[in-house]
């Protein structure tokens, strides 16, 4: 865990310039040269069983393609995801708390999804909401079933970088508060709107909000220098499933009708995810950012306590997501990483296929280093070195 903690700290090295959102990969790289990042961002997470499925069954023991064993492109590193927790779950009991703590122990990223899943605050209200949400994550570790106990996850504040707004109801007031609290990124916006000429081949790459977000819908968040935005990926349906566009969250994939009255067969869910990955790979390779809800992938606590098995529908959806991940990891260009890892890579982008950098020499006082981000390149290389210490599969 020390390695993972150090990696997280080192991969948020700040380049001296902003990185505006773009349809092109960073650093002048061609789409064929960059990893196809997949980020799994799960919010709500009030089902311990659902969170445990994602961590222990879907991702545990899986590794990214070996590549050239270069940590700068996450070659052979463990599959990782990002989880955004709600602060009020400090009172959800031991089962949920244990699942949340397991996320951290397994090396996944922990971010914030507000305190009580409420929105519409002014700046003072957001400031209070963010502070209370952080309390649950950073409070000394304690996971008890006593209904009167306020639990805590024991995550160092320095390891919490990301925010997803409840119901994606972001606002300029919120983003000002995120800057005050030192968040590195938000991931509440989305990309892939057909009426803007977007499809799964030309989604917008992440970038900083120095000049806002291009063609934001429905509202522009405003200009917030240095704050990164990692947009969620809307989905294109294959032609044989209608060819239209749908939303970016699992709840959008699950249903065939807008009123959510007709289930989508699990096989179609896997087909949609694979189709969109292939379109990303054949396009500009913007990250494929999947929005999940942990509570949608497992049982509620009372069902677990009573020994009620997972429903057929849930089990089939789990199998579809597993099938997609197997398919994704069969692609040599794919890397399934945490959101903060995408930010780290974009600050110092490395092409696929490079041999690992040698361990960098110490930089003399006042020295600059020679990394892609100029003066801070040595620190970025150290972060890559730390990634190399992470466990890898045999290749």
Offer a quick outline of the entry.
The protein is an alpha/beta fold and 395 residues long. It has helices at 2-10, 48-59, 94-105, 123-138, 172-180, 250-253, 266-281, 301-305, 312-329, 339-347, 377-388; strands spanning 36-44, 82-85, 109-112, 162-163, 185-186, 190-191, 207-209, 224-229, 232-233, 235-236, 245-246, 288-293, 334-336.
Task: Say which CATH homologous superfamily is assigned.
Answer: Glycoside hydrolase/deacetylase
> What's the overall average pLDDT, rounded?
88
Strand tally:
13
Number of domains: 1
CATH class: Alpha Beta
Derived from helix and strand composition plus strand pairing, the structural class reads: alpha/beta
Count of individual helical segments: 11
Q: Sheet bearing the most strands, described?
A: 5 strands, parallel
User: Nearest-angstrom radius of gyration?
Assistant: 20 Å
- Beta content comes to 5-15%
CATH architecture: Alpha-Beta Barrel
Q: What is the N-to-C order of secondary-structure elements (H for helix, E for strand)?
A: HEHEHEHEHEEEEEEEHHEHHEHH
Distance between the termini: 23 Å
Q: Name the overall outline.
A: globular
Instruction: Give helix % range.
Output: 25-40%
CATH topology: TIM Barrel
**Which regions contain 5 or more consecutive residues with pLDDT less than 50?**
1-16, 363-388
């Amino acid at each position: 865990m020390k390695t993972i903690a150090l990696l997280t700290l080192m991969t948020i090295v700040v380049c001296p310039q902003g990185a505006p959102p773009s349809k092109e990969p960073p650093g002048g790289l061609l789409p064929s040269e960059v990893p196809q990042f997949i980020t799994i961002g799960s919010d709500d997470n009030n089902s311990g069983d659902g969170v445990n499925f994602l961590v222990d069954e879907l991702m545990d023991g899986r590794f990214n393609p070996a590549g050239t064993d270069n940590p700068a492109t996450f070659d052979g590193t463990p599959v990782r995801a990002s989880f955004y927790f709600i602060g009020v779950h400090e009172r959800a009991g031991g089962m949920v708390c244990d699942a949340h703590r397991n996320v951290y122990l397994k090396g996944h990223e922990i971010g914030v999804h507000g305190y009580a899943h409420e929105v519409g605050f002014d700046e003072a209200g957001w400031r209070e909401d963010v502070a209370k949400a952080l309390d649950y994550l950073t409070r000394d570790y304690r996971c008890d079933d006593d209904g009167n106990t306020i639990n805590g996850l024991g995550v160092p504040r320095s390891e919490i970088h990301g925010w997803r707004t409840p119901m994606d109801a972001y606002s300029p007031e919120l983003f000002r508060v995120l800057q005050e609290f030192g968040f590195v990124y938000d991931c509440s916006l989305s990309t892939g709107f057909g009426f803007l000429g977007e499809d799964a081949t030309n989604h917008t790459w992440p970038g900083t909000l120095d000049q806002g977000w291009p063609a934001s819908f429905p509202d522009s968040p405003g200009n917030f220098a240095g704050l990164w935005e990692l947009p969620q990926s809307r989905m294109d349906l294959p032609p044989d499933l209608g060819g239209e566009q749908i939303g970016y969250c699992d709840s959008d994939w699950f249903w065939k009708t807008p009123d959510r009255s007709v289930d989508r067969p699990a096989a179609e869910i896997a087909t949609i995810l694979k189709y969109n990955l292939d379109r990303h790979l054949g396009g500009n390779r913007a990250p494929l950012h999947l929005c999940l809800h942990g509570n949608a992938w497992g049982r509620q606590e009372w069902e677990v306590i009573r020994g009620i098995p997972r429903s057929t529908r849930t089990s089939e959806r789990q199998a579809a997501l597993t099938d997609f991940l197997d398919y994704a990891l069969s692609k040599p260009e794919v890397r399934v990483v945490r959101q903060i890892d995408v930010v780290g890579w974009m600050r110092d982008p490395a092409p696929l296929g490079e041999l690992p950098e040698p361990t960098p020499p110490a930089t003399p006082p006042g020295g600059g280093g020679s990394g892609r981000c100029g003066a801070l390149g040595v620190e970025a290389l150290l972060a890559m070195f730390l990634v190399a210490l992470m466990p890898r599969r045999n290749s």
